[in-house]
Design a protein that fits this description.
homodimer; about 325 residues; alpha/beta; 11 helices; 12 strands
């Protein structure tokens, strides 16, 4: 019989849960409200309730599952305590995740940062199948990531590994919320791309007053990375400038990780990557300039295969890795 | 009985070998000439001869050893073939290391890049004892490194991991032999520090004509990092400028690796570190500016404990890791 785990993906507004088998989701993904404003204990209670519901709906005894995997914002210590970094979940820091779940369901628990866990989903179900060493970049509101070494998710001693978004790629560059300057997140996240577009549109010279520039100038708060990439597709010179700068910076960070870890594959995912091949190919060409050729030529840069259920599949993959 | 391995450290001029037990070297380190100019086959023959000599001198049967570990310049594939990157050993690329040794001595072989293997020596015998996740920077003629994840040396799929010397730390910085610009190796290696000193001395203004500056200007080809650090100890302002720049750049690379891997410890070693605490403390203060505080505060930056036999101990540690 196929081994199955319970995967729980904790988000700021909803908690997603599903039974995750060796080939992916078994059945449907169930969502319950996080109720983050009610504090850490309520969030934990909601997770316990969701696990209970998933087990009940499965019609199977809890002992038939190999374990529970949880992806959460922030950092998780090796004993299952939330160490911090989950600012959108007040009171979540300090919560002990493993004890209450094991006590109630008699199952082992493996938790990790939600974005980090997605790397494991790619390894088990997606763009990382068949390889052992993987670095994932997730280009969303910020830039997150995950690292797989020798076929296992690399969490670091304190569950904090994979902060690839804060690799500095430009000396004295754009100030970042983390206190550094020039973090790749400031350029290659959706937020970063939009901010660069607004700034470049504002500063566009007389020869650059394209349709894209007037649109951005007229309504800067409604600019999205999707909209920018519609104009990249139309070869708008200012949109292309934004695109090239984002890909240059991302290519530098990708290059740093390839040099340091010599992975089989670098996986680029997250909402920004919906724009597709144009980002992939441009990042490849910039990354090549920031790597030793012998290392670079042995590494593939590929798009993520996981979609919107990446988080819950990553959570399930955590349990498969630990207890499978 | 204590388990023992045979450690072989291949260098450009000499091959060092020793019996490496669970606590370190057992007996003495034996040296034979590499004879690099005679080609790859001769180098391999010299390694085979040295292993034979070590076994004979030990007075023990070869079967009493757990295996052979080899540290070599360049990159080693997972099957023991030298993939490249060993420019000072003509004809070494393409050599198959494992087959001939196993055939002759009936022992398993584990090989890796020599500098990378030193990380494992620090883990097993030195500054990394008791921890699981480690990043080593070796500041020598160049900057090399090694990464230990979850208690194991991380080689990457093609034995090329750990090239921390080619992390770009300055946009558009000093051109590097690898084709990039601004690699940390250009600033924090002995070569890099000396080059910066020569350049800064040449460009020193009227208010900066210190004893150090005249010495460097008079005899630029004889400047060494040791000499520079003698003037750092005397608080020579130009020597201090060189020192601060080297440590700033190294701190950036250390910061990148801490953010990405959240290791327990970063170990700084190599000849340049002979200058001691002044480098360690300055790098710490710069690295702190290039890390997330929550990650940085959980990571120690410590000096290497391995001395000139680091390579042969690292080689032995490779065998202990694989066969112990």
């Amino acid at each position: 019989m196929q081994k199955s785990a319970i995967g729980i993906d904790l988000g700021g507004t909803a908690i997603k849960g599903a039974i995750i088998g060796e080939r992916g989701i078994e059945g449907v993904v169930t969502r319950v409200p996080t109720e983050a404003h009610k504090g850490g204990q309520q969030v934990l209670d909601n997770i316990l309730g969701l696990i209970s519901e998933l087990i009940e709906d499965s019609g199977r005894p809890s002992s038939s599952f190999i374990g529970v995997g949880i992806g959460t914002p922030g950092f998780v210590g090796s004993d299952g305590t939330i160490l911090g970094g989950a600012e959108n979940l007040p009171g979540w820091k300090g919560t002990q995740l493993y004890g209450p779940i094991t006590k109630r369901f008699g199952l082992g628990v493996s938790a990790a940062n939600d974005v980090t866990a997605v790397a494991l989903a790619e390894l088990m179900f997606g763009a990382g199948r068949g390889v052992k060493n993987l670095v994932c970049f997730a280009l969303g509101t910020g830039v997150g990531g995950g690292i797989v070494t020798d076929g296992k998710l690399y969490k670091g001693t304190h569950g904090m590994a994979g902060e690839v978004g804060h690799i500095v790629v430009e000396t004295g560059g754009i100030p970042c919320t983390c206190g550094q300057k020039g973090c790749v997140e400031r350029y290659a996240s959706a937020t970063g791309i939009v901010n660069m577009a607004v700034e470049m549109a504002a500063g566009a010279g007389d020869g650059e007053l394209t349709e894209f520039v007037s649109l951005v100038r007229k309504n800067p708060v409604e600019v999205t990375s999707k909209m920018i990439y519609e104009y990249v597709a139309k070869a708008d010179p200012v949109a292309l400038k934004v695109h090239n700068r984002a890909c240059d910076m991302l290519g530098r960070a990708v290059g740093v990780m390839i040099n340091a870890l010599s992975p089989d594959r670098v996986v680029l995912g997250g909402g920004v990557m919906m724009a597709g091949d144009v980002i992939l190919e441009t990042v490849k060409s910039y990354a090549a300039r920031h790597c030793w050729p012998a290392i670079f030529e042995r590494c593939e840069i590929v798009p993520a295969q996981m979609g919107e259920d990446a988080g819950v599949m990553g959570a399930g993959a955590l349990a498969h890795e630990q207890f499978g």
